[in-house]
Amino acid sequence: MNGTDLLAERFQAHRGQLRAVAYRMLGSLSGAEDAVQETWLRLSSGDPDGMRGPDGGFTTLIGRICLDRLRSRTARRADTFVPDPVIGPLSPTDPEQEALYADAAGLAVLLALENLEPAQRLAVVLHDMFAVPFTDIAPILERTPAATRQLASRARRRVREAAPAAEPDSGRQREVLEAFLAAAKAGDVEDLVAVLHPDVVLCTDSGPRDSRRVRGARAVAEQQALEFRQFANCARLALVNGEVGIVNLPEGRPLSVVGVTVAEGRIVALHILADPERLARLRLPGTAH
Question: What residues make up the domain containing 149?
């Protein structure tokens, strides 16, 4: 086996992790795939023997590529932006798929990452989520390891403040969502208010021309009651970024995907992707009634 073949084999072994890094950095599944491909093109055009470290330097290289892409964005995403969701069945049967779904960062966390500066996002993603040492991250950011550590610490605080600690028990998540859907089907505003946290935030991303953000249990329940009732009739429960969420499938076609964050027995965040173009590109494994 020559050097290029060995590099390709090592790269393939780490491809899943590289895609996960890029997804957390960019919030886009297609963007993550593009970043993985660019990583391979850069590696394959260089000296295979020049790569060092347990993963051949792949993680730091894709981190650099994603950092460049974040810095080159011409505009900040709107506060109604919902990242591409990773969707899976409630009970994955494939161990590889199960690991992927369990490892998917929640949509609330991804949205918190969206509000960080590119350098902050890189530092907290690589170190906190993928255990890359600060000594390896610092050269990418052209900072000292100590300065990079401080950068990550500030970013970590911002993420914790923006993303509520989610209920870890999937069974409890499902109970709350079932109560939400029952109230939605009945069109009962008071029951909807009861299952929503007083400061719940709802973001609906239907594309650049029709998106909205609503805060507060009463406002969300009253403004969205009719819409909730309509989609509750075709709702299927699924894992959405590792948490129990909702996929709306009238006639088998995705109308929307709802990422739900549950904390302390109530819904604290609803992130609805309803952009037809983006929905058409999603993979929708089996979901539960």
Answer: 107-165
